[in-house]
Design goal:
mainly alpha; Serine Threonine Protein Phosphatase 5, Tetratricopeptide repeat; 2 domains
Amino acid sequence: MDEEITIIDSNARNERIKNFFINNKKKIILAVSIILVIIIGYLSVEKTKERTKIKLANQYNLALIDFNSDNKQKTIDEMINVIKSNDATYSPLALYYLLDNNLLENNEEINILFNELIEKTNLENEIKNLIIYKKALFNSDFVSENELLKILNPVINSESIWKSHALYLLAEFFYSKEEKQKAKEFFNQIMVLPSANNDIKVASQKRLNRDLGE
């Protein structure tokens, strides 16, 4: 008797499953089709990204190989194109190369390229903070106090590993301007910052002891 009931229940369950697929055939086909389209689309996008990355790598490396002082504009143009591709790896490398080799002379153009990375490129937070710091370092010789603070605000108002670097840059900026009280305030911020870079903390302590009466 129990065996017969089990067989009946099993047949009923199979019939319900069969009816479910028959009654919802169109919906199931549509759902499977959508899933397949999403998977194919994702794989296609990833393949396109991979090809773009390889192309940028080749463009960057060829620009390095072809560089010579007689035709530096070609290298500059190639690197600017790489920067404007907004690639998280090669765009920063291209800007660093231009700066390290002093290939750009126009400060406004350099800041535009910094902003291209900071505002338009999808970077990890700490990479972005490093680029903000480098932008501030580049500008520190010729911008005003307010402009320098504006550049560095995203870093000094965060818990970034580059925060102590930003504070040290501001401290030295004010020290160079003979604004010793402001410099002292920023050096002291470094001294109480738990995540401060150890070398920067040591340099700050030396500056406070030697030059700022601490």
